[in-house]
TrEMBL record:
Domain of life: Bacteria
Family named by the database record: Belongs to the zinc-containing alcohol dehydrogenase family.
Protein's name in the database: Alcohol dehydrogenase
Keyword set includes Cell division: no
Domain Alcohol dehydrogenase-like N-terminal: 18-121
Keyword Iron-sulfur listed: no
Cofactor dependence: Zn(2+)
Length: 309
């Protein structure tokens, strides 16, 4: 990926540095962030991709070799003020796999720090493991906001991240509705037993994950006074909202990004969630540009890359 263009390139297999592993990527996901990067977000150039499952081919940590792994995406220094305060995902010197100053996983091989790797237990299949990163991002909400059994929650956005968040919140038996645009996608939510929002308002918590800048205004209008707005979308350009509404209605706004992989693994252990309803198609890596086109199509579900072919 370079200057908003994607191309397929043959390059040498990267060599792992000390305390890093060479991972042979098996399955990778294309997420909205990757599409935004293509449109100029973070001015990224290099190999994109941060959602994957693969097998360690080489490592100076011999216990990792041959293990099936996923990886936390923030590559951190462990030394700055944020790291020392256990806020490593905000490391001042962080690089982010396939997003910020670091090549990603839409490739046959990737080099990843050993400390970022998590071994995937055998009972978790590749089609579940490839969703660990967005699942962790969904679980993050439970770490940031106290949600009670009486809370009324709305998810604005019927996309992939919306589905992950709905999976987490509905498993926890919270009263949940989803607002979306696509009949076919909303059916997936309905199949999970989640109510479709038909103009209801006064929610206690609204999670915005449309990935489009108009979503935040819609989300704001659905909250009760003193409600909590959780923002999950990132986009290349600026969103506009009426801040007076935020002041007058005393809305609490929480930005929410990466979550703990340990939380995500525990969630799958507990609920054995099936993410296959959101998978649209698996493309071979050699058809990567076609896969990105498919993922960019409005209303597309999850596009995966089979990096072994
Ligand atoms: Zn992602
Ligand atoms: Zn740091």
């Amino acid at each position: 990926m370079s200057n908003g263009k994607l191309s397929l390139k043959k390059i040498a297999v990267p060599q792992p540095k000390p305390h890093h592993s060479l991972v042979k990527i098996q399955l990778a996901g294309i997420c909205s962030t990757d599409i935004h990067l293509l449109h100029g977000y973070k001015k990224f150039s290099g190999i994109p991709g941060h959602e994957f499952v693969g097998v360690v081919a080489e490592s100076d940590d011999h216990s990792l070799v041959g293990k099936r792994v996923v990886a936390a995406i923030n590559i951190v220094c462990q030394n700055c003020d944020m790291c020392l305060r256990q806020m490593t995902s905000h490391c001042r010197k962080r690089r982010v796999l396939g997003i910020l100053n670091c090549d990603g996983v839409h490739a046959q091989y990737a080099v990843i720090p050993n400390e970022n790797l998590y071994v995937v237990p055998q009972h978790i299949c590749n089609e579940q493991a490839v969703f660990i990163e967005p699942l962790a991002a969904a679980c993050r909400i439970l770490r940031q906001v106290e949600i009670s059994s009486e809370s009324r929650i709305a998810i604005v956005g019927d996309g992939k991240l919306g589905f992950m968040i709905a999976t987490v919140l509905s498993a926890k038996k919270f009263a949940l509705q989803v607002l979306g645009k696509y009949t076919e996608k909303l059916k997936i939510f309905r199949d999970l037993g989640i109510a479709i929002c038909e103009g209801e308002r006064d929610f206690d918590v609204v999670v915005e994950c449309t990935g489009s800048k108009s979503g935040i205004t819609t989300a704001l209008q659905m909250l009760r006074p003193q409600g909590t707005l959780i923002l999950k979308s990132t986009y290349a350009d600026m969103a506009e909202i009426c801040l007076s509404d935020v002041v007058v209605n005393e809305i609490r706004i929480i930005g929410s990004r990466c979550g703990s992989f340990a939380d995500a693994f525990q969630f799958i252990d507990e609920y054995n969630s099936d993410f296959s309803p959101v998978i649209e198609k698996i493309y071979p890596l050699t058809e990567g540009t076609k896969a990105y086109e498919a993922a960019s199509t409005r209303g597309a579900k999850k596009i995966l890359l089979d990096c072994t072919s």
